[in-house]
Amino acid sequence: MPSDWPIISYFNSGTATSRHILSQLEFVAREQWYELYRHKEDGSLWRLDADDKYQQRFLVKIDNAETWATFDATQLEQGLLLESRGGLSEDRCKWKSCESRAIQRSAFCVVHTYEQGVRK
Ligand SMILES: [Zn+2]
What we know:
Blueprint: E1 8-11, H1 16-23, E2 25-31, E3 34-39, E4 45-49, E5 57-62, H2 74-84, E6 88-92, E7 101-103, H3 110-115
Antiparallel strand pairs: 1-5, 2-3, 3-4, 4-5, 6-7
The structure holds zinc ion.
Zinc ion binds next to helix 3.
């Protein structure tokens, strides 16, 4: 069965979902803060943040096996943050001179919420 996982998703260690995902992956390599896995059935590549109890881990689909360790997932992570908050609010971002709209349950837009280390 091929993986039909989204391009990016939260990976929460110790959950049934994370165990199920890992059971379908085989470890390929580790570099710096990331681990690379290959889906056993369809061969797709997935990058996982190394285990760190203080940081939210993400599972990201990787298209280029050469640059997997340096692939910048910031925009994907911001998209997931926006989605997890339920989208934009009616308010303007409180960041000085930022014109963007704030996201739900934050005083800031997605970029400025993210810049403060918020991931979810
Ligand atoms: Zn902003």
